[in-house]
Design a protein that fits this description.
Elements lengths: L1 H15 L4 E7 L2 E8 L4 E5 L10 H6 L4 E5 L16 H15 L4 E6 L1 H12 L4 E7 L21 H8 L6 H6 L8 H18 L19 E6 L8 H9 L3 E6 L6 H4 L1 H13 L1
Parallel strand pairs: 3-4, 3-5, 5-6, 6-7, 7-8
Antiparallel strand pairs: 1-2, 2-4
């Protein structure tokens, strides 16, 4: 019952998160779903492969201090143009064009998992456009000593997927975010399928970039690296591997947290990033 109360409380916070507005941006051959809201410096959140593409409570908290932009990657939610995207290089260029369209010359940039990798790829290509960079539980680098877990192996097994992604796989957030198949309506199931298909297109053959480690020195801005201590998908060793290649990086390891800190350790996660980007 206590876990149900937590879920109801989060649902109430979601319904009361009123700072965000949904809109669409037209780029050549692509349509981008974009939530945005708040006032202050531009803050761009790049979502994970989970597809958190609606305005969520943690976005709403950041919007007290920043103008927060939450675009959906091509192939996620209502964004189109995935047929034009074959690699992370393509996706980084897509975001350069989106920021150009929005008139954002410099931004605070960051993301979780796939979004964190993408943020790093963007920052090494256009370092002058990133004022602050944060990366959370991101692939992109590779170590033979610390291989990633195979996400696709458990894609149709919600119980195993929750074990992979959460410190508390039976906790309120885990069971709310990763639902059993019988609990999904048609719309939710199709959205999950579309997200998984897009993630496979981007990462199936190689879920990292052999060149990224040698390019990270190009990042000029301060960098915050956040990782869940119990991340079973992308081990915490990668937090320190990223830091080895970015001289100005600071690492924060979150205890009692898995792969998705924006859900499992929301308050700490939001505060760390807010204070970092305000400094």
């Amino acid at each position: 019952m206590f876990e149900k109360v937590k879920q109801w409380a989060y649902g109430a916070r979601y319904l009361l998160a009123r700072r965000g507005e949904k809109t669409f941006v037209e780029l050549p051959g692509r349509r981008v779903q974009l939530w945005h809201g708040g006032e202050g410096p531009a803050f761009v959140y790049l979502h994970s492969g989970l597809g958190e593409t609606v305005w969520l409570p943690f976005h709403n908290t950041w919007a007290k201090d920043f103008h927060v932009y939450v675009p959906a990657h091509p192939g996620f939610a209502e964004s189109t143009g995935i047929e034009m995207i074959d690699s992370m290089d393509d996706l980084a260029l897509h975001y350069a064009e989106l920021l150009d369209h929005l008139g954002l010359t410099t931004v605070c940039l960051g993301g979780v998992s796939l979004g964190g990798w993408l943020a790093a790829e963007f920052a090494v290509r256009w370092p002058e456009r990133v004022q602050r960079l944060w990366i959370a539980d991101a692939p992109g680098l590779w170590s033979d000593e610390h291989p990633y877990a195979d996400l696709f192996r458990y894609a149709q097994d919600p119980a195993r997927l929750r074990q992979l992604l959460f410190h508390e796989p039976q906790g309120a957030m885990a069971t709310m975010i990763i639902r059993d198949l019988k609990q999904m309506n048609e719309e939710t199931f199709l959205a999950a399928y579309r997200a998984l298909r897009t993630l496979a297109r981007l990462t199936w053959e190689r879920p990292y970039s052999p060149k990224l480690a040698h390019r990270l020195y190009r990042i000029r801005c301060p960098v915050l690296i956040i990782w869940g201590e119990d991340d079973r998908l992308i081990p915490p060793a990668y937090a320190h591997l990223y830091a080895q290649h970015i001289a100005q990086a600071r690492v924060e390891i979150l205890p009692r947290c898995g792969h998705l800190p924006m859900f499992e350790r929301e308050a700490t996660f939001v505060e760390l990033i807010r204070d970092f980007c305000r400094s």
